[in-house]
Specification:
Helix content is about 25%, strand content about 35%. It is built from 2 helices and 4 strands, in the order E-E-E-E-H-H. The strands form 2 sheets. The chain has a two-stranded antiparallel sheet.
Length: about 80
């Protein structure tokens, strides 16, 4: 399964590890993904989402229904 947040769409980024001698080695910066279950009262079911820590904070602030509606509009959410 891909390392992609289902709400924000964040993916791994590519960069360099730079040593003290300024040698550059390619590396990947992975998003802080967590699996989390949420209850959807409108559909009366539980869904498991793969989210970044930032997305979990956003859901805590605005609520799961509002965030999922916005993610579907942007095309990030795949259930």
């Amino acid at each position: 399964m891909a390392r992609v947040c289902q709400i924000t769409g964040k993916r791994p980024r590519v960069g360099n590890t730079v040593s003290r001698a300024n040698n550059k080695i390619k590396r990947r910066f992975l998003p802080n993904l967590q699996k989390k279950r949420f209850y959807l009262p409108e559909e009366d079911k539980w869904v498991t989402l793969k989210l970044t820590a930032k997305a979990i904070k956003t859901i805590s602030k605005y609520g799961i229904t509002a965030v999922m509606k916005e993610a579907k509009a942007k095309g990030h959410l795949v259930l």
